[in-house]
Write a structure and sequence with these properties.
mainly alpha, about 425 residues, 17 helices, ion transport, Na+/H+ antiporter like fold, antiport, globular, about 70% helix, Na+/solute_symporter_sf, membrane
Length: about 425
């Protein structure tokens, strides 16, 4: 019965992935909102009792499914970014200035703010830090309504006016990997022992070492695949000429696998691989074809996860939720993330910085910190490493926060971004 149910849900998601984008394009309703609501309604019907919905009993399955969704989304996000990032060019780094501020200032502030809320709610320091680390990164999966549309190809002229979409997209691509050090820190804290015993290991390995390895793996795999696809001496191996867009799946699997096998952060590897591949033959139409494959697969997997999440909500996921969990979720979405974003975008301010955003645009970037599938993955991963971190209250609070973000940000994304677009056109 469980296998039959999975096929049923998968078929429904495939159909909805085809129909929903055009059906919802005129209204301030996002596909994630519809899928979560539909899942909640399905959860109220008489379903089999053995469905794999309990996060405690199905932690490994949840971890691997959400892991796949995130890496597919990261490949699509990396391919969609037109703005180059050349490590040897200082001005190139400056054009990503808002992204660096959101990562280096906004993200730690968000982790600390949520951790303080969790600690005040009675969590142990390790559990509070895990909650902050899991909920801090914005989600590349659910943020399609506020992200760049896709790669420009042909006669490429990079549009520098849409700083809001670029910042939200690039932030979502990078902060999923950069949350991992803090998840590992929570696991080390839960394991006990003196701080001096694991502090150097965390700084040297988890914070610095794994990050460098992940970036290096992404660079190497992206360079190698781009050279193969565009410049191989054998015409048979130049897949870009044939337009075989399944290279996107090979790239995300290879980069993630290499990054993880070498001990780095695979999420960073996938995103950096996509950026590196995108930098080769930047105007080639092949990038758009690869992005389309990643985007379609991401949409299907996302709808599946959200439908199951909606079913789980009305089948007991929120049973452990209390006023403290509600306070954490509402506080993150409406207070912590917006304040952290505003502080971050005012940090290191330079008068001549390229792409400086107006005040209204900064408020939009600060507010749209969408939470989603990545947060579910981090909690499932940490619970596998330290079972005491997989408590029901954390699952309920995280589930509530994701649903709240889907509803609030989903309802506001269309009208807010329409105003931003209209303002950019007037400028």
């Amino acid at each position: 019965m469980t296998a039959d149910f999975v096929y049923l849900v998968g078929g429904a998601c495939l159909l909805l992935a085809i129909l929903l984008p055009d059906l919802l394009s005129r209204w301030a309703v996002s596909a994630p909102m519809v899928l979560v609501a539909l899942g909640m309604l399905i959860g109220l019907t008489p379903l089999p009792d053995d469905l794999p919905l309990d996060p405690q009993d199905n932690r490994a399955a949840i971890e691997h499914v959400t892991e796949l969704v995130v890496i597919v989304a990261l490949m699509g996000v990396g391919l969609a970014l037109d703005r180059p990032l050349d490590p040897r060019n200082r001005s190139s780094w400056g054009r990503w200035g808002a992204t660096w501020r959101m990562l280096l200032v906004g993200m730690p502030l968000t982790i600390g703010g949520v951790a303080l809320l969790g600690w005040g709610a009675g969590l142990t320091p390790a559990a509070a830090l895990l909650l902050g680390a899991a909920l801090a990164p914005t989600d590349p999966v659910l943020a399609s309504d506020v992200q760049v549309a896709g790669p420009q190809t042909g006669d490429l002229e990079v549009d520098e006016s849409d700083e809001v979409r670029f910042t939200l997209t690039s932030e979502a691509g990078l902060n999923d990997g950069l949350a991992f050090p803090f998840v590992h820190l929570a696991i080390l804290m839960a394991a006990g022992g003196s701080v001096s015993g694991w502090a150097l290991e965390w700084v040297g390995l988890d914070l610095v070492g794994r990050t460098i390895i992940g970036v290096a793996a992404g660079l190497a795999v992206g360079w190698a695949l781009a050279r193969l696809a565009f410049r191989s001496q054998s015409r048979t191996l130049r897949v870009a000429e044939r337009g075989d867009s399944l290279m996107a799946l090979a790239a995300l699997a290879a980069s993630y696998g290499v990054g993880e096998v070498l001990g780095g952060y695979g999420f960073l590897s996938v995103f950096v691989c996509a950026l590196t591949f995108r930098s080769a033959e930047r105007s080639h139409d092949y990038h758009a074809a690869m992005h389309e494959v990643a985007e379609r697969l991401e949409r299907l997997l996302t709808l599946f996860v959200l439908l199951v999440l909606g079913i789980a909500v009305t089948r007991g996921l929120l049973e452990a939720l209390d006023w403290r969990g509600v306070l954490v979720g509402v506080g993150l979405v409406l207070v912590v993330r917006p304040l952290a974003g505003v502080v971050a975008l005012r940090a290191w301010r330079r008068h001549q910085e390229p792409g400086e955003m107006r005040r209204s645009e900064k408020l939009v970037v600060a507010f749209f910190g969408i939470r989603g599938v990545g947060s579910v993955f981090y909690l499932a991963y940490a619970a596998g490493e330290a079972p005491e971190l997989g408590q029901d209250w954390l699952w309920s609070t995280l589930g509530f926060t994701v649903i709240l973000s889907v509803l609030v940000h989903g309802a506001l994304a269309t009208p807010v971004m329409a105003r931003i677009d209209a303002s950019n056109e007037r400028r």
